[in-house]
UniProtKB/TrEMBL annotation:
The lineage of its organism: Bacteria, Bacillati, Actinomycetota, Actinomycetes, Micrococcales. It comes from Brevibacterium spongiae. InterPro entries: Aromatic_CoA_ox/epox, Ferritin-like, Ferritin-like_SF, PaaA, PaaA_PaaC. Its EC number is 1.14.13.149. This is 1,2-phenylacetyl-CoA epoxidase subunit A. Residues 315-339 are annotated as: Disordered. Residues 315-330 have a biased composition (Low complexity). The keyword Iron does not apply.
Amino acid sequence: MTTQVNDNRYDESQLQAQFDQTIEAKDRIEPRDWMPEAYRKTLIRQVAQHAHSEIIGMQPEGNWISRAPSLRRKAILLAKVQDEAGHGLYLYSAAETLGATRNELTEKLIAGRQKYSSIFNYPTLSYTDVGTIGWLVDGAAICNQVPLCRTSFGPYGRAMIRICKEESFHQRQGYELLMTMMRGTEAQREMVQESVNRFWWPALMMFGPPDDNSPNTEQSMAWGIKTHTNDELRQKFVDMSVPQAEALGVTFPDEGLKWNEERGHYDFSTPNWDEFWAVVKGDGPCNEQRLAHRKRAWDDGAWVREAALAFAENQAAEAAADETPAAGVETTTPEESAK
Ligand SMILES: [Fe+2]
Ligand SMILES: [Fe+2]
């Protein structure tokens, strides 16, 4: 038996070497491949958190669908919110290939054992926020997600490619809404500026804590799950957003924001990390409301899940009955039929 144990150890180190080679070559790890348990767990946590963010993220904007200012705006917002539901589903499917079911992940979310993006714990106070979320929140999501298209786990990377195409529509529709308002009345311009003031800092916090306080980043980068650090992505987002704000005619609420010739980047002030941690730990303005709403929707949908399961079981039973030959009926083998 000792030989058997040794063989297993040998196999595992071979498998680990193969895994390392795949990561090194920047190839994809697929669900059928061996992977270290810690890699699987990290991915499940990240993909689940991402999926939950898409689904919870439907709430702040869904809140305005019935109060859209025109048919056109309503059609755009409906399409956008439905896209987010689709993103959640692709991502739950990616997590399922790692062995975590959607039920199990949703239950963890509802029990507060898995997180979603802190940004969705802020309220939407006017229709202008639909524009600001599209521009800044979907914009920040794009910065985060474009590099994830090349992440080391195949199903996650492929889901991201499709998601990113839709995110770019989300950002454009938001920017176009704000641009329309900026061409309107003075009161509308003030609404845009007020909304941007509220969302700027929470949008910067979407990239997560600063690199020196982000314990998982190093390992995630070594595994090719993450390809850029939080601070790199945050800088990229600031550099990209400043010219867009100028074109729009709004400012960001940061006196420390200025171009640094030497660095070739914009300098900006430090976000309020105490606020970030408070929101992450459940004390944001809407945490309770968001989770309560999700729980209600999950509970209300229980009968649909039960009915779908019962239907699938009936179908499977019928299909099995069709395949079983009835007593007394002569059956032929393929060889016999060919004669
Ligand atoms: Fe999305
Ligand atoms: Fe989006």
